[in-house]
Design goal:
Blueprint (H helix, E strand, L loop, with lengths): L16 E5 L8 E7 L4 E7 L3 E5 L6 E8 L4 E8 L2
Antiparallel strand pairs: 1-4, 2-3, 2-5, 5-6
Length: about 80
């Protein structure tokens, strides 16, 4: 399985959530980790779905990184939460 290695994996940010598009499957789950700018892990998610919704309404405004990993490949992308 390959992971799409570009920033198109993340949708435009909405007020309360972001959508992450992966090529996950029942046989190949994807882990999605969110980090703040200092590298502190904020959340960890496991997904078997190709579209995963992450609630952001409880997260402070700022710049964050998402690491999407399928066990073979990983992508890290930056996004901003603005309140």
């Amino acid at each position: 399985m390959t992971l799409n290695m570009n920033s198109d994996n993340i949708s435009e940010s909405c007020k309360d959530y972001i959508l992450v598009y992966t090529n996950a499957s029942r046989e190949n789950p994807v882990s999605i980790d969110m980090f703040d700018l200092s590298g502190r892990k904020m959340t960890t998610h496991q997904s078997l779905d190709q579209v995963y919704r992450i609630q952001t309404n409880h997260i402070q405004a700022g710049t964050y990184y998402l690491k999407i990993n399928n066990g073979k490949n990983a992508i890290v992308t930056k996004f901003v939460i603005a309140n």
